[in-house]
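Review this:
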Amino acid sequence: MGIQYVTGDATDPVGVGNKIIAHICNDVGAWGAGFVLAISEQWPQPKVEYLKSRRSLSLGAVSIIQVEPSIWVANMIAQRGIHTFADVPPIRYDALKKCLGSLAVEARKLQATVHMPRIGCGLAGGKWESVEPLIRVALPNTEVFVYDLPR
């Protein structure tokens, strides 16, 4: 299985069968920048569900929302706030690890492939060399597609 790198848009996942689009959200209820904008352009439900639960968001939580008959979006809470403080970016790798574990369970249950941008490496301030191994460990038997936008 492993990770396949794709040039394209993660909101338009490749392949057939069930698909989960995974992305990182913050724990303060702020939805309005980064990849969430692309999700919101395609489907309103992930934002609605996120904002409904914004008073009880906790790091490591995952919400899986079905947006089409064979597509789900995974809102993964793995970002503390939205700003870097004392040179510490918002990404929380321990929370991401927990989220990916939950994502793996859901992917097995749905027999789904997983699709994502380079999660945690944009506004969350993470490093791909730290994120990629977490994905490989958490999802070893799941086909994962990581998307880079065309340049």
